[in-house]
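Now for my pick.
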Amino acid sequence: MQQIEPVGDGRSVPERAYEKLLAYVVEGKFAEGKLPPEMDLSKQLGVSRTALREALLRLESQGYISRRRRVGTVVVANRPKVEGGLEKLNSATGIIRNAGMEPGTTFKSWRMEEANPLVAQQLGVESGTKVSVFERVRTADGIPFCFDISFILEKHFGEADANKMGESLFEYFSEQEKLRIRRAVSRIYPYVADSLTGDRLALPKGHLLTLLEQTHYTASGEALWYSRAFYRSDLIGFHIVRVP
C-alpha cells in the first residue's frame, strides 16, 4: 500500500480522516484488503486515535469495513454495492431488491406548494399550479443511499396518498390503471452534497453524489411526476446498455 498522505484542510479532523480513508478503500489501495493497525494508521494520517476511531466507525456503519477481533480491520466493499440500469423503467425500491438488499425509508415528508417555473415546465402546467412535494430518504439494508424529492400534480397525489403508499411511488402509481407510468425522460448529473442533501444522507458537504432527474409520463402523455433523486455515488452506480 502507498504511504497515506496526512489530512489537512478546513473540515473537522474526523471528517477529513473519513474522506481520506474512504478514497483509499474505494480505490483498493489497502494491501490484501486489510487496514494497518490503529496506531500506525493514526500516525500516517496525522490525526488522533479518537478522530481515527470516529472515522472508522462511520465507514463500518456504511458497510465498507469490518473490525474483527484478532483479525483487525478489513475491507468489506470497495465499489458501489448496487448497479442500476437506465434502459428499463424501475424504481429505487426495485433496484435495491434486484441487488438482493432490503429497501427502506428513514425520512418522509409531504407538503403542498406552488410550482416554480422549473417544476411547472417539467409537469407541463402553469407556474403557481398546486403540486404535492414528497421527500424521502431511501435506504438499502438500513444504509441511507438516496434523497428523493418528487413533485406530483395535486389532483393525483395528496397527503392521504403519502400516508398510505408503501415503499415505492412507482409501484403505487402502477396499481392505478390511468396513472401507470409508460415512459420517463431521464437526465443524470454529477452533484456535490450541499447542506440539505448532506444532512439528509448523513454526509459531509462536498461528498460526491449522482443526481438523477426524471419526468414520468402516463400512457396518455400526461406528465404526472417530476423527481430529483440524489444518490450516493459510492453506494450505487448507473449504467446503460447501447446497441446498434
Notes: Residues 82-239 form a domain with the Chorismate lyase fold (CATH 3.40.1410.10). The two ends are 42 Å apart (CA to CA). The chain has a mean pLDDT of 84. The first strand starts at residue 65 and ends at 68.
